[in-house]
Amino acid sequence: MIHVAILGYGVVGSGVAEVLHENAGAIGRRAEEEIGVKYILVRRDYPDSPFRDRMVRDFSLIEQDPQVEVVVEVMGGTGAAKEYTERALRAGKSVVTANKELVAEHGYELLQLAREHGARYLFEASVGGGIPIIRPLSQCLAANEIEEITGILNGTTNYILTRMIRGGLSFEAALKEAQDNGYAEADPTADIQGHDACRKICILASLAFGRHIYPRQVPTQGITELTGADVAYAGSAGYRWKLLGRAIRQADGRLCIYVAPHLVEEENPLSGVEDVFNAITVKGNAVGDVMFYGRGAGKRPTASAVVADVMDVAKHRKGPGELSWAPGGEDTVAPADALESRWYVRLAEAAALPEGVQELTRPDAPAGERAFLTGAMSGAQLRESLSGFGRVVLAQRVLD
Ligand code: NDP
Ligand code: HSE
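A: This is the predicted complex of the input protein with NDP.
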């Protein structure tokens, strides 16, 4: 029997306990050993939970129990979550997590610590919720030089955009629904301002390009500046808004990496990814384009990925820890501004437009408001081309 301790009994933690319990037969067969939850670390009472008899408040009990081989960290954040992860790894216990903030900030050192102590640190659930992406990227696509990763990486914002565009909901009402469904972070500003997607593209980029990429190195914008006007202009030309995380290898080996809303053509498969679904396209130099799609957040999809990692540990207890990357550095990242693309621009108080742009229209636009698509250019070229043409309200890239 493999004994598991779950740290945190929120959306994901309760899902992990449920899935391990409900699917115990199949899980035990496939892992070739029974897997049971021995402890759940909590900081308040859950009198109605069927797992209340396993709840404890002192992490030392878990740390010091030699029977516990796997610790599932689903508390979130980089405070107690980091401390307990380190203590578990030092005690030789493998750690499975959904905590992308911790992996994005400290993945390199935690993977090293796991290796030093003959344990494993696994985080399939940290990107794309229930979508298998970490293992495919590190194993199935290992023969490739990865040239580009582009993804819809945040379920909450994709849900909000879908509900605003298709359901006519306000931003606040759509966010409330996402929170009620268990998709949002404890502090949803991490979702709507793009930080969650930033952490995820950092993890994918670190894995794919082999050096730790830190969130502070990644220019990040969320969806808060998009308005109904931008949705209408986009729709008029056959585009939809998607919040994308992108990492693109440059000729010198550095990465252009950033998170921002993009206009995506309706023919592009990413444009049809709706609600809480995420999709990630990976371009390898041998395989070409590969796309991963599924539920990017939520209790049971995320638990599915967490439990699969627990089963992996059960089958390969002291495995070589196949997830790894080298330390980061300032030489890993190239300025994203230099990347050329077409741009969507909305101006206020504009009497004229730059030459060669494709103007967009929407009903009831106020006088002086103009929106258009440019040709391909860098961020610096865009700014230069716009000087003297009115106030720039929004300028975002088109995904080509
Ligand atoms: P929740 O806020 O629902 O759950 C976190 C739980 O951890 C809460 O119950 C909280 O307790 C508990 N907790 C926090 N600190 C401690 C502590 N020191 N000791 C004991 N318990 C603690 O978050 P989620 O379950 O949604 O997310 C958990 C992790 O999974 C996060 O890292 C998140 O980013 C990640 N994740 C979430 C997904 C989702 O769809 N929700 C998908 C993929 C990843 P209390 O209730 O008392 O605050
Ligand atoms: N808040 C995250 C999201 C959870 O909405 O995508 C899944 O990582």
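The pocket of NDP (ligand 1) is lined by residues 8-13, 41-44, 74-76, 80, 98-100, 125, 129, 182-183, 185-186, 297-298, 302 (CB under 6 Å). The first strand starts at residue 2 and ends at 7.
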